[in-house]
């Protein structure tokens, strides 16, 4: 099982902060995962395609559609951070 975490507005769109999923064998990259999630939930898919979404794979910040998610135990999606 892979734990998917959603933060900020992504949590609101997903309707929950965490999902435990069995990723299909053909999901190997962040881009493929985003497409799979979009197929499952169009609103979440659109939110994940928005600019500036950060992806953290097993607690390491990893951005880019080609980043591998094979064997990942936890994948977090985070909207842009701001501070002041």
Tell me about this structure.
- The protein is α+β, with helices and mostly antiparallel strands and 84 residues long.
- It is built from 3 helices and 5 strands; from the N terminus they run βαβααβββ.
- A hairpin with a 2-residue loop joins strand 3 and strand 4.
- Helix 2 runs antiparallel to helix 3.
- The longest helix is centred in the middle third of the chain and has 11 residues.
- The protein is globular and about 35 Å long.
Which features does this protein show?
84 residues, alpha+beta, five-stranded mixed β-sheet, 3 helices, 24% strand, globular
**Portion of residues in helices?**
25-40%
Q: What general form does the structure show?
A: globular
Q: Can you give the mean pLDDT?
A: 93
Instruction: List the quaternary state of the chains.
Output: single chain
Q: How many H/I helices? A: 3
Query: Which structural class matches the secondary elements?
Result: alpha+beta
Question: What about the largest sheet?
Answer: 5 strands, mixed
Radius of gyration equals 12 Å
What share of residues are in beta strands?
Answer: 15-25%
Distance between the termini: 37 Å
Arrangement of strands in the largest sheet:
2-1-5-3-4
Low-confidence stretches: none
Write the layout of secondary structure elements.
Elements: E1 2-6, H1 9-14, E2 18-21, H2 30-40, H3 42-49, E3 54-57, E4 60-61, E5 74-78
Parallel strand pairs: 1-5
Antiparallel strand pairs: 1-2, 3-4, 3-5
Helix pairs in contact: 2-3
